[in-house]
Design a protein that fits this description.
Layout lengths: L4 H20 L5 E7 L2 E7 L4 H6 L3 H30 L3 E9 L4 E8 L4
Antiparallel strand pairs: 1-2, 2-4, 3-4
Helix pairs in contact: 1-3
Length: about 120
């Protein structure tokens, strides 16, 4: 069965919410995935805990949170790539991510080996 682009985006959104919950113990309050050419862009909002939000008020705290969350993504990268590969049938060439410690939003950009 062939899935529409919207169905694939929905499945990616669900899978990344589940990954966040299983891997970090909590998930985002909002999530959305979009496929554009050979990229999957995922926005996750509300991923910081109240303690992380408080810590992010200082420059040192912001840096600490960003480093911690970056390290967690690097360790979970094989699982993330498997999720995207399974749902798109495309190989992940690169993964870029950043988090706003002000808004609590994380962005993932998965660059694939072909257009979807």
């Amino acid at each position: 069965m062939t899935f529409s682009k919207g169905q694939i985006e929905d499945e990616i959104t669900k899978a990344l919410i589940q990954w966040e919950r299983e891997y970090k113990g909590r998930g985002p309050t909002e999530a959305k995935a979009d496929i554009i050419r050979n990229m999957v862009i995922v926005s996750l909002r509300g991923i910081l805990s109240p303690a992380e939000c408080r810590l992010a008020r200082s420059r040192e705290g912001m840096t600490l949170i960003k480093k911690l969350l970056q390290q967690l993504v690097e360790q979970g990268r094989p699982e993330l790539e498997d999720i995207i590969n399974r749902l798109t049938s495309a190989r992940v060439i690169s993964l870029h991510t950043d988090i706003s410690t002000k808004t609590g939003e994380r962005i993932f950009v998965f660059v694939l080996d072909r257009e979807i």
